[in-house]
Design goal:
Strand order of the largest sheet: 1-2-3-4
Keywords: 4Fe-4S, DNA damage, Endonuclease, Glycosidase, Hydrolase, Iron, Iron-sulfur, Metal-binding, Nuclease
Cofactor: [4Fe-4S] cluster
CATH topology of one domain: Endonuclease III, domain 1
Distance between the termini: 39 Å
Number of strands: 8
Shape: globular
GO molecular function: 4 iron, 4 sulfur cluster binding; DNA N-glycosylase activity; endonuclease activity; metal ion binding
Pfam families: HhH-GPD
Structural class: alpha+beta
CATH superfamily of one domain: Hypothetical protein, domain 2
Bound molecules: iron/sulfur cluster
GO biological process, one term: base-excision repair, AP site formation
Amino acid sequence: MSGDVPVMYSDTGSVDLRSTMDIQITALEWMPFGDGYLKYYPDTDEDVYLEQTQDGSLIVRPEKYRERVLSEFDYPLDQVYHGENELLLRLKEYYKNCWALKLHDPYISLIITILTQNKTADSARKTFHRLQHHYKGIDVYKMASADKKELEELIRTSGPYKADFIIRCSQEIIDRWGGSLEWMRTAPTQEAREALMSLYGVGPKTADCVLLFALGHSVVAVDTHICRVSERTGLSLATGDSEAAKRRVKEDLERKHRIPGMAHLLIINLGRDFCKAVLPLHHECPVEDICPKRGIRKEKGLGLIEE
Ligand code: SF4
């Protein structure tokens, strides 16, 4: 969708920065800092700060980066779903001020997604920021020849074992594709997905995140949270979050509901804000009146939990 929707900078007055920064791999280059977010730009060797004020305006420091930062905002999420599912239409309206950020460099997306594996987004953000500063901007060549012990220490809080993933998959990208993943942008989705998954340390969800957030393929990246919300809302009839259930959820969302990849951010938002694993906030939820709440039962004294 990047490039399809002309965006004037003034349009970003509708941005809800918190939800925009929370849920997409593209946003994880921004690290929470004070009341806003910090991003390192390797080409100028500077940190840039972004904050939203009470009245909704966006502050960028240093000011000279304003246009560059605002140009990273691509389109609001109310432009991502054009089907007829009532629940998704409701979410599209509710999260209309959450913005998709511009497509990412696929190698950077890959490294950030590896850092998020089994870790929180905040942990990955801090680790990525540290890596960027240490290497003055990472790239496939720097990472392929990185000192393993040093890298393990730099990424310790996101899982030191991932140093092996990062070094080996970077070496593979150089050996097999001349150091670039760009060819995957125009390759058939399944071919690109299989190629990514053949890299050391890359599983289905990591591959789907890179395909979606960096390469423009319309895929849904399924994780435990997507499984939970899809089951409860009836978007999928799969149960649990086994690998078989994840495949079923992916098929239901991509084929049955024809959800364009970026629309799955609506489901992630719902899970994060209301449909929590424990004690979901039904009474505040924007889809409460149309949600079947599959797999949920009343548990005395604990509120509502999963069966
Ligand atoms: S109503 Fe409850 S179960 Fe349904 S989506 Fe909202 S929080 Fe989840």
